[in-house]
Structure formats: C-alpha cells, structure tokens
Amino acid sequence: MDLLTELLTTDFRTLDRNAADLYLAAVAQVKPDALALPTPCPDWTLHGLLRHQVSQDQGFAAAARGDGARLANWHGGDLGDDPHAAAAASLDLVTEAFAVTPLDAGFVLPEVRDGGPFPAALAISFHFVDLVVHAWDVAATIGAPWEPGEELLTAALKVAAIVPTGADDRGPGTSFAPVVPSSDGASDQDRLLTLLGRSPSWNR
C-alpha cells in the first residue's frame, strides 16, 4: 500500500482530537503579555497565530458541512479576551463537524492548491498535521515543552511526507515554508519540523 492510499484509508478523527489536546495544552500556558511575541511563522505574532488556528478550525468545520468554498468562513477567527477559550470552542466545533462527516465526502479547501474537493479522510489529516506543528509553534514561542508522543509523530510524519515541496508550493502565501535541511540522525520531532519548513533550533 502506498502512502497516499494509506492516508486515504485512515480515520484521522481520533488523532485530530488528540492533536487538539496537544495544541490546547500549549495555548493554556500563554500569558497575555506573550501575545505580541514573534513566532516561528514569520508572518504572525502569537496573537496572529492563535487567531489563524481559530479561523482554520472554523473553515474546516464549514468544509465538513459542505460550505468550504466561501473564503469568509476561513478568515473570521476571533480570540476575544480569552484566547484559550476561543481555541477550545473552535476545536470543539470542528471535532463535532468531523464526527458526523462520512470519510468519503468531499471537502472544498480554497487555500490548498486548486481548492479540491479533497476526500474527507485526507482533509482531516491536513487539519491534524497543522495542529501538531502549530502546537510546536506556540510552545517554542513561550519556551514550553512540546511532547506529541510516538503515535502523533508517526502519523504526522506520514502526512508531512506528501506535502508538495515545489517552488510554487512553498514560501510566502502558501501553507508552509520551504523544507529545512535536517542533520543525520535527527529525531522524529526535528524531522517533522524541517519537513514543514521549521528550524528546530528557532528561538525568539
């Protein structure tokens, strides 16, 4: 079985919820004065990154309901005065939407390549890997630990391996920066980060 076929036949919903818990554990440690800090994502402060993830959760939930084509559904995230509560609410929203979506449904994802539709199983894997790596972004920004565990790392590495790496697919305006070279003997955590355009040694 090739990797893409494996991903298309894997139910990522439980993994996605576990990744959400990993992400929320990092967000729970964010203090108000940290929201203006720079993050490993050069376009975003920590506030911008957290708002982006809320927007993505809302967009994926809309896609699961068959309304993913409207760009407004992907840009309406609001942290209010409690970023952790906003993150938890948006993740509950997307978890509930995924739970009732058949895995052979089609998700329109307007910010991914040609917009799809993508099979639900694959689309959910995209949301999953974003949560795992954004959990690191948050943790790295505030100096907190990031411990995704073997199950999440193994699954995330498989998803990261199918992310296109061409010049038109990476860089400004795309989902990920270019792949960062990794050293021989790099850990699975570091390999995941470099595949998704992050330097494991990043610090603010």
UniProtKB/TrEMBL annotation:
Pfam families xrefs: MDMPI_N
Top-level taxon: Bacteria
Mycothiol-dependent maleylpyruvate isomerase metal-binding domain segment(s): 20-139
Protein name stated in the entry: TIGR03086 family protein
Species per Swiss-Prot/TrEMBL record: Actinomadura violacea
